Amino acid sequence: MPIEIKHLTHVYMPGSPFEARALNDICLDIRDGEFIGIIGHTGSGKSTLISYFNGLERAKPGTVFVGGVDLGSKDTDLIAVRRTVGLVFQYPEYQLFEETVEKDIAFGPTNLGLPPEEIERRVVHAMQLVGLDPSRAKKSPFDLSGGQKRRVAIAGVLAMDPQILVLDEPAAGLDPAGRHEMLELIRDIHESGVTIVMVSHSMDDVGKYCDRLFVLSHGEVAYQGAPAEVFVHGEALNAIGLDVPECAKLAKRLRDAGFDIPMDAYRLEDVAGYIIDNIGKGRRGA
Ligand SMILES: Nc1ncnc2c1ncn2[C@@H]1O[C@H](COP(=O)(O)OP(=O)(O)O)[C@@H](O)[C@H]1O
Ligand SMILES: [Mg+2]
């Protein structure tokens, strides 16, 4: 189910001395099955933008379409939209509240009025998707580690069976191993057929996982495209507080030094593979 945003502007506290233009004339589109990265410096408008994806905010001015349905229309059933687009807020573990993991995950489907067997099926499936051991089901979510709690929160959104999952900085605050696990988990969810929109401020993370990026700066889409297309703007990205992945920098240095490294080599595996296959071989043969 595609998302299409046209000329969206958002101003916080308009007309007051605190007026802040968080989004300015944003246009973007997200296609079925993509793994999208929304990246930008703190305050660039990422969280404000995604609050429009499931109708938490109504566009004025601008339009937001999900699967062709105008979320700004008074006739639109926003509850149906929220089943289609699951939103995982930043630090979602703070919103856990039930006594057990399974009750927390079941909260959304229970509110939908689904039959108990279907709720049970969804809870089991969601726990599987996020890699939570079934033995945790009856435990209190508050006894789990930070990373595990976050998985419970994500499972709760997945139990609504969304077609699009939007995550606001899902790796924030986790240690390096926890970050890696979380990102791999999101990749697995994507591979299970869910469209992913991931907000991040790590170019390394979005470069590794995403098909297409939207770079926000001061509430505007500054750059968009496949990671390779975005990373060529290295210096301009630096100027808006972002850095390209280390491997993209290395590839550029080698390219500048005359090596014929393809523009779309920016992931560690690709750059390392190129060096081993071409540069390394040359040396050995010399
Ligand atoms: N509730 C709010 N009231 C007023 N200004 C806000 C509010 N939330 C965010 N802003 C401002 O809007 C801009 C974009 O914020 P946000 O969408 O949170 O950016 P990001 O998620 O990229 O850090 C910032 O300048 C921020 O200070
Ligand atoms: Mg934010």
Question: What would your notes on this structure say?
Answer:
The chain is α/β, with parallel strands linked by helices and 286 residues long. It has two domains: 3-244, Rossmann fold; 245-286, no CATH class. 40% of the residues lie in helices and 21% in strands. The chain has eleven helices and ten strands. The chain has helices spanning 46-50, 78-84, 101-111, 116-129, 146-158, 176-191, 203-209, 227-231, 234-239, 246-256, 268-285; strands spanning 3-12, 20-30, 35-40, 63-66, 69-70, 85-88, 164-168, 195-200, 212-217, 220-225. The strands form two sheets. It has a six-stranded mixed beta sheet with strand order 6-7-8-3-9-10. β9 (212-217) and β10 (220-225) form a beta hairpin. α3 (101-111) crosses α4 (116-129) and α4 packs across α5. The longest helix is centred in the C-terminal third of the chain and has 18 residues, at 268-285. The chain binds adenosine-5'-diphosphate and magnesium ion.
Describe how the helices and strands are arranged:
Elements: E1 3-12, E2 20-30, E3 35-40, H1 46-50, E4 63-66, E5 69-70, H2 78-84, E6 85-88, H3 101-111, H4 116-129, H5 146-158, E7 164-168, H6 176-191, E8 195-200, H7 203-209, E9 212-217, E10 220-225, H8 227-231, H9 234-239, H10 246-256, H11 268-285
Parallel strand pairs: 3-8, 3-9, 6-7, 7-8
Antiparallel strand pairs: 1-2, 1-4, 4-5, 9-10
Helix pairs in contact: 3-4, 3-5, 4-5
The structure holds adenosine-5'-diphosphate and magnesium ion.
